[in-house]
């Protein structure tokens, strides 16, 4: 017989009492990360544009532009950046690191690649609702946005960085 296994309970107890990141810190971290993404886009897109035209990826007169939701390569870059940065930084993208916050998994002690990518894909879901997925921060008792719930995460103040500031 199959029974429910509440495996996340112990991890949730470990996180109990963690200071949640403010909306302002989260928004500023996201803005910093978007600025980095735009910079990376221009660094890599500029030399690739002639190649993309030659092989028909870009049509005649079509421009290579970065937008959050209008072309596949911008979406791929955002998911790749947030997925890898969150995974490699164990919840800290460069923007989150600067602001002293981090994403914490409700299931694992370390962010897995899958949870990091899943959360990155969740940004799209938060945007698709006209941004309401981000506004859910103010409604949810644990300040979780839609992409937090998709990735089974919370965003907290980084304890080590917080102690260094004191």
Short description:
The chain is mostly helical and about 170 residues long. The protein has one domain (about 10-160). It is about 55% helix and about 5% strand.
List keywords for this structure.
mainly alpha; 2 strands; 166 residues
Annotate the secondary structure layout.
Elements: H1 8-15, H2 23-54, H3 72-88, H4 94-99, E1 101-105, H5 113-128, H6 132-135, H7 146-150, E2 153-157, H8 159-165
Extended strand count: 2
Q: Span between N and C termini?
A: 52 Å
Helix content: 55-70%
Order of helices and strands: HHHHEHHHEH
Task: Average the pLDDT over all residues and give the rounded result.
Answer: 87
Number of domains: 1
The fraction of residues assigned to DSSP E strands is 5-15%
Strand order across the biggest sheet? 1-2
**Gyration radius, in Å:** 18 Å
Give a short account of the largest sheet. 2 strands, antiparallel
Task: Count every helix, treating DSSP H or I runs of 4 or more residues as helices.
Answer: 8
- Low-confidence regions: none
Coarse structural class? mainly alpha
Quick one: overall form?
elongated
Description:
The protein has 166 residues and is mainly alpha-helical. The protein has one domain (9-160). Helices cover 57% and strands 6% of the residues. It contains eight helices and two strands. It has helices at residues 8-15, 23-54, 72-88, 94-99, 113-128, 132-135, 146-150, 159-165; strands at residues 101-105, 153-157. It has a two-stranded antiparallel sheet. Helix 2 packs across helix 3 and helix 3 packs across helix 5 (113-128). It is elongated and about 55 Å long. The model has no long low-confidence stretch (mean pLDDT 87).
